[in-house]
Design a protein that fits this description.
With 124 residues, the protein is mainly β. The protein contains no helices and eleven strands.
């Protein structure tokens, strides 16, 4: 069974940057669509960005132009580069795999394998 482990979270001042990573075992990023989600306290989990097996990417409107999703197939690692961070980006960030194409990519039902998350806190 695939296991996903996120890392790279932390606390940063508004306007700063963080880079999240997600390492997979028992799973191949190169042939699958994978994604990043986030969940702020009291809010539903929401899709942040996704990358398809062919490398095409898609982003939530709230992060377009600031976040970049990428994957290193050789290292089987998924990354999320986050720039120009805002306090509203504060959340637990999760990577997700095992795409269910019956749902849109930003729907939590679209993925069935999840990491445990890494906390990102942005202070003003």
């Amino acid at each position: 069974q695939a296991q996903l482990v996120e890392s790279g979270g932390g606390s940063v001042q508004a306007g700063g940057s963080l880079r999240l990573s997600c390492t997979a075992s028992g799973y191949i990023y190169s042939s699958n669509c994978v994604a990043w989600f986030r969940q702020a306290p009291g809010k539903e989990r929401e899709g942040v960005a996704a990358i398809r097996s062919d490398g095409r990417t898609t982003y939530a409107d709230s992060v377009k132009g600031r976040f970049t999703i990428s994957k290193d197939n050789a290292k089987n690692t998924l990354a999320l580069q986050m720039n120009s961070l805002k306090p509203e980006d504060t959340a637990m960030y999760y990577c997700a795999a095992d795409r269910n194409y019956g749902y849109g990519w930003a729907d939590t039902r679209a993925f069935s394998t999840w990491g445990r998350g890494t906390q990102v806190t942005v202070f003003s």
